[in-house]
């Protein structure tokens, strides 16, 4: 798995910390021009402190992706800095627990807005720009690549995180639908469904519930939790021309966790 993204321009949302930050940093290392975007200004500032402010490959944007104006401003800032956009990675997300019998509709709406609608809106606005770029380069193999980060909860519902599961199930369907809509324009849309990856949110959960680590490892056939960096090569593959005939797919990166019968894993 590989593929070059050197010289490409990428927007990575959720790039202030965790998996989004790992992806954005990796893209820079691979020679891409990267717009780091996040709602958390402090986290974003800390992430950007690793780079020289004069580095032509790196820019940042602080804004809430769930807000329509923020998505438009993010695209404008990217075009001002780099003049084009070739890759979009929707890595921002919100994690909230919800009672399946007493679901707070406000919480459900928040999760849908942040985890599905924000990424869909970002995809739509960036795709329009990619289509314009494709018209200017009709002979190009690919006009753009969009990668959405999903979760195992989209396929295997977690009762205590009903809203979260619903939002990502919708996001995965949106990924497939947009892939069909944008394929004639040579724009590819794919997703990555991950589970046993040390995200920022998982770190927080492990601090609150240390026993959760053993449960995850026990349920994961490969017997460990992956580092955030282990996800980035899959993202890079889907973002690069190495996957130029791949679209509408949801790749699972979870150490085999989704394959195992939970009872069997616990009794082996």
UniProtKB/TrEMBL annotation:
It comes from the Bacteria. This is SDR family NAD(P)-dependent oxidoreductase. GO terms for molecular function: oxidoreductase activity. Its EC number is 1.1.1.-. Keywords: Oxidoreductase. The keyword Chloroplast does not apply. SUPFAM superfamilies: NAD(P)-binding Rossmann-fold domains. InterPro entries: NAD(P)-bd_dom_sf, SDR_fam. It is an enzyme of class 1 (oxidoreductase). The lineage of its organism: Bacteria, Pseudomonadati, Pseudomonadota, Alphaproteobacteria, Rhodobacterales. Belongs to the short-chain dehydrogenases/reductases (SDR) family.
